[in-house]
Design brief:
Strand order of the largest sheet: 2-3-1-4-5
Mean pLDDT: 93
Helix content: 55-70%
Order of helices and strands: EHEHHHHHEHEHHEH
Structural class: alpha/beta
Number of strands: 5
CATH topology: Rossmann fold
Strand content: 5-15%
Largest sheet: 5 strands, parallel
Low-confidence stretches: none
Shape: globular
Radius of gyration: 16 Å
Number of helices: 10
Number of domains: 1
CATH architecture: 3-Layer(aba) Sandwich
CATH superfamily: P-loop containing nucleotide triphosphate hydrolases
Length: 206
């Protein structure tokens, strides 16, 4: 039996951390769909056309450690605005979502476009300022030379592009449970996510 959990939200809201914790809690497979776009973005920066990169994408390209730089994040946001790239990656995501044993997918359009029939949907968000502080801390600890002001500008620019793109804009699904992590520690945020998912699982078990 398959059970799909769709977790959407903007950058640095905590959806990746929550998604991994939720997948581990329920023993579900997990897919960070943002890595697909980061991998395509990386190939574009290396000179490969976006659509060609999307069509040739393989599991070997999804090395998260190599893909989490500010430059690749911006490239990912740009290629994600291309309808032909999104279409090329849709089948991969939908097949993953319906695997036996359950799946958790996190991204920006999982509950609205990729898996509109997902059994459970969450939208994880936080203020731009809080998200910029989190991302700046992460980048600083990894040795990246940047400033909080630069990171905040990048967050706002990416939000505007993700929310205003014509194809699959970032927005909560109508039936998604909203979790604002601005004032939450990670344990509390994860607990709220698990509680919301358990309610959905109970509803489908009736």
């Amino acid at each position: 039996m398959s059970f799909t959990i769709a977790i959407d939200g903007p950058a640095a809201a905590g959806k990746g951390t929550i998604s991994k914790a939720v997948a581990a809690h329920f023993n579900f497979a997990h897919l960070d769909t943002g890595l697909l776009y980061r991998a395509v973005g990386r190939q574009v920066l290396l000179g490969t056309p976006a659509l060609e990169a999307a069509r040739a994408l393989s599991a070997d390209d999804l090395d998260g450690d190599k893909l989490r730089t500010p430059e690749i994040a911006q490239a990912a946001s740009k290629v994600a605005a291309l309808p032909e790239v999104r279409a090329a990656l849709t089948d991969f995501q939908r097949a993953f979502a319906r695997r036996a044993g359950g799946a958790v997918l996190d991204g920006r359009d999982i509950g609205t476009v990729i898996c509109p029939d997902a059994e459970a949907k969450l939208f994880v968000t936080a203020s731009a300022e809080i998200r910029a502080q989190r991302r700046f801390k992460e980048l600083f600890e990894k040795g990246h030379d940047t400033t909080l002001e630069t990171v905040l500008a990048d967050v706002r620019e990416r939000d505007a592009r993700d929310m205003n793109r014509a194809d699959a804009p970032l927005k909560p699904a109508e039936d998604a449970v909203l979790i604002d992590t601005s004032a939450l520690d990670i344990d509390t945020a994860v607990a709220r996510a698990i509680e919301a998912i358990n309610l959905r699982r109970a509803a489908f078990a009736m």
